[in-house]
Amino acid sequence: MSFVDIIKNSVISEFTGTISIDKIALSLLTAFVIGIFIIYIYKKTYTGVVYSKSFALCIMLLSMVTALIIRTINSNLALSLGMVGALSIVRFRTAVKEPVDTAFMFWGITAGIMAGAGLYLIAIISSIALGLLYYVSYILGFKGNSQYLIILKYDTDIDSKIEKMLSNIPKHKIKSKSICKDKVELSFEIATKDHLKIMNAFNDINGVDSVNLISYQNDFGA
Fold it and tell me: Where are the chain's structural domains?
């Protein structure tokens, strides 16, 4: 037997599996359970403005679809080549707003790969360990103060008083300031739990027309 035949036989031997209903069902069930766990961790650690239920369901669906793809690739060489060719023409243009959302998507894909490859126990144990470690890290070290964007509208003659009050706020960052005739619109970030106290302090100043508060997600100081 030549060296080429040895390589050919070794490659073909990797794709001699058969697709069975029980294996597909077990892979889908494992991916589904892990996907539910990923959604639970994502919801518990979510710090955005609006929670997207469709994105959470997308993570679970991504795990199951990936498991089906891997199960198909493991069964037949021709199917695997056709699957690679089909996926190579797909273009994903959906923008991911938060970097952590990308990490959760990769987590779902990885769980689907392990479930499709038949590594059920490893997929479940590693996903549980990863989820618990991430949740503990979120609780202990990476959960900071809530960030807000405050928008003020006031008269121009009290601008100096507003600036003096802003200097007393330890963590703030001015985002924009616009002047229209005798009115000023000022927006700035704060990272504190006493946002209501700050709002009331500005609202008590004569000449302030309105004080608006918006939940704001951004890396403070960026």
Answer: 3-140, 147-215
* 147-215: CATH topology: Alpha-Beta Plaits (3.30.70)
Q: Give the pLDDT mean for 77-94.
A: 56
Is the predicted pLDDT of residue 122 greater than 60, yes or no?
A: yes
Supply the pTM of this predicted model: 0.61
Give me the torsion for CA of 41, 45, 50, 56, rounded to 10°: -20
- Confirm if 191 and 174 have CB atoms less than 8 A apart: no
